[in-house]
Amino acid sequence: MSGHKADAKALLDDRGYSGPLIRGENPANLIEKPLQDRITETYYWKEQCFALNEASLCDRAVDMNFIGGTYGQQKASPFLCLVFKLLQLQPEREIVLYYLHNEEGFKYLTALAAFYIRLTFEPVEIYKALEPLLSDYRKLRRRRNDGFMITHMDQFIDDLLTKDRMCGTTLWKLPKRQLLEDLELLDERVSPLADEIEAIDNENDDAREGDESREGSDYERRNGANGRSRSRSRSSEGR
Which controlled-vocabulary keywords does the entry list (predicted)? Predict the structure, then answer.
């Protein structure tokens, strides 16, 4: 194994790996082998990820200014490099949740933690940890092969909860939320927009009732006028 992979040697060597497992397997295998190679070949991995710990990785994440998988000639992004480093470090749950909800508001640190949670946590924990961020509308820069685009945190989280591939990485299939609700493992989710939607529905109902009331009045006026006209006509004929 080449020298630049020395920092991840124990993680990458399946034959000699004896560390903690995630869902029964080496955590490195949560990233496809070709992508592992692209990550460990990047300058960012060699120079910026060597000997990182939980604290120094946090500093690297704070310095990030975009998310993404691979770009250009299939070059792995710093975001993916830090995801892979987290798989090597396997920080305590409390540390990961601190990354996710960091009080300083570092949004790319939050996105990094969310991606790691989607890869490594159990289904119920994933929903409980990530769903509150569906109300987070901060902008994120996302790098793709054809350049940068703007997305938002809530869209990124929604993609993590609903898609099987994100940032060049195949995600393990997450059970549908409805299934976990049926098994009584999750409570029914109440949308943070529920009150607004209900208010809009009420306004629409009131508007429809008002239209129906006006239509009824118009009908009565028209029929009343026609009735009076017919009455006058019959009266004239009688005379």
Answer: mRNA processing, mRNA splicing, Nucleus, Spliceosome
DSSP 3-state of 148: strand
Q: Which two tokens stand for residue 18?
A: 């004896």
Residue 173 per-residue DSSP state = P
Phi, psi of 105 (to 5 degrees): 80, 30
pLDDT at residue 40 greater than cutoff 70: yes
**Helices H / strands E in the chain, number of each:** 11, 7
In 3D space, the residue among 150, 148, 171 whose CA is nearest the CA of residue 161 turns out to be 171
**187: helix, strand or coil:** coil
Q: What is the pTM of this model?
A: 0.78
3-state secondary structure 131-154: HHHHHCCCEEEEEECCEEEEEEHH
Q: Which residue has the tokens 């992004």?
A: 77
User: What b/e readout covers 106-136, taking b as 16+ CB neighbours within 10 angstroms?
Assistant: bbbbbbbbbbbbbbbbebeebbebbbebbeb
Which residue, among 34, 41, 32, has the nearest Cα to 8 in the 3D structure? 41
Give me the residue spans of the domains in the chain.
Answer: 3-182
Quick check: 45 and 116 in contact, CB under 8 A?
no
